[in-house]
Amino acid sequence: MKFAYFPGCVAKGSSREVEDAMRCVVKAVGIDLIDMPGAACCGAGVMKQGNHRLQLAINARTFAMAEQQGMDVLTPCATCQGNMYEDLTLLLEDEPLRSEINEVLERTCGMRFEGNLRMRHLLDVLVEDIGLDVIASKVVNPVDFPIAGYYGSPMLRASANGDDDPHNPVYFENLIRTLGGDAVDYDGRTASVGFPGLLSQEKTAMKMTASVLSEAKQEGARIMATACPLSHFNLDVYQVKAGKATGKDTSMPVIHLPELVAYALGYNVDRYAQLRTRILVIGD
């Protein structure tokens, strides 16, 4: 099973742990990632506000690169998934717009986008393509405590995450149970934490972040796993600030979805052991 790999800017930069864990996960389940050298940022919900046609052209170029290899695009980032899925859908539905963007692509890089691909997130692929029964057979380090899965709101658009229900998704919770964990049910799993509003509306973003973390903890979560490396910034790096700004208990270890899966499948055990220590210290 092969996919054109779109890691997203974060996985190749400030959160290299996402990339490291991704490589372990795909190795374990038999996925080949084919890199797309030169693929550009998806816009992350920011570029669209200034120049949506520029973002469309950039993402159409990435789609065209994947089409040249005859593959769907796979990403571990919910923001990339939601953003690129939205652009892909728009380009497929609006033929005049697609022609306009293709004219730009042909003029600047000699490429065309035809729409013969799907935009996929790791969570969707693990559940629908690999299958939870296959993943269960490969678990060697079952997780044994309550885990709050956080989807990342950009991914929760109609059909953006495969056949999962965008209003009441279950893929993440089913995956957590397959890995041996207790999936925590909390409303904040589908809420926004305010990224990229953090850049201009920090106070509001901190309230949103604190709400998600505190609710998950109140419902019994000992750890949070995120499907969105960008939302992860708010939930992990800014959790202390969010707690101070709201007076809520936001203290919780937060890891990425690929890290959780990689550990359960037998990889990065030493890294997870350090995290487990954090869980015990914070939880007690």
How is this structure best described in words?
By secondary structure, this protein is α/β, with parallel strands linked by helices. It has two domains: 2-121, Glutathione S-transferase Yfyf (Class Pi), Chain A, domain 2, CATH 1.20.1050; 140-283, 3-Layer(aba) Sandwich (Rossmann fold). It has helices spanning 16-29, 47-50, 52-68, 78-93, 95-109, 122-130, 132-138, 171-178, 202-218, 229-237, 239-246, 257-264, 269-283, and strands at 2-5, 32-35, 73-75, 119-121, 146-150, 182-183, 223-226, 254-256. Strands 2-1-3-4 form a four-stranded parallel sheet, with helices on both faces. Strands 6-5-7-8 form a four-stranded parallel sheet, sandwiched between helices. Strand 1, helix 1 (16-29) and strand 2 form a beta-alpha-beta unit. Helix 1 (16-29) packs across helix 12 and helix 9 crosses helix 11. The termini are far apart.
Topology:
Layout: E1 2-5, H1 16-29, E2 32-35, H2 47-50, H3 52-68, E3 73-75, H4 78-93, H5 95-109, E4 119-121, H6 122-130, H7 132-138, E5 146-150, H8 171-178, E6 182-183, H9 202-218, E7 223-226, H10 229-237, H11 239-246, E8 254-256, H12 257-264, H13 269-283
Parallel strand pairs: 1-2, 1-3, 3-4, 5-6, 5-7, 7-8
Helix pairs in contact: 1-12, 3-4, 3-5, 6-7, 6-8, 9-11
| H-E string | EHEHHEHHEHHEHEHEHHEHH
Query: What's the architecture of the largest domain, going by CATH?
Result: 3-Layer(aba) Sandwich
Q: What is the helix tally?
A: 13
What CATH first level of the largest domain would be assigned? Answer: Alpha Beta
Strands of the widest sheet, in order across it, are: 2-1-3-4
Uncertain segments are none
Largest sheet properties: 4 strands, parallel
Broad shape: globular
Q: What is the CA-atom radius of gyration, in angstroms?
A: 19 Å
Distance between the termini: 43 Å
Q: Structural class of the helix and strand makeup?
A: alpha/beta
Write down the CATH topology of the largest domain. Answer: Rossmann fold
**Proportion of residues in extended strands:** 5-15%
Structurally, the number of domains stands at: 2
